[in-house]
Amino acid sequence: MIVAGKRNPWPCFDLAIVSPSVKEVPYYRGTLPSAALGDTISLDVFRMIPLTRPALLRERPFAFVAQDAKLSRIYFSGGTLGRPTMHPYTSEDWEAACERTARAFRYTGIKAGDSVAVLHPFDIWSIGPEFVQALAQLGATVLPIGIHLSEETICGLLHRHPVTALCAAPGHLCRIVNAAAKTGHPLPPVQWIIVSGEPVTAAQRAYLHQFLGGEVFSLYGCSELDTLACECAAHNGLHLIADDLYIEVLDPSSQQPVAEGETGEIVVTSQRTQAMPLVRFAIGDLVRLVAGGCLCGTDSPRIEILGRGEERVPLGDGTDLSAFQISAVLEPFCDEILDWQVLLSGPPERVELQLLVAFNEAWSTDVLQAIESRIRKASVDLEDCLAASIIAVCRVSPASLAELERTGRGKRKWLIDNRTKS
Question: For a 10 Å CB count at each end of the chain, is N or C smaller?
Answer without folding.
Answer: C
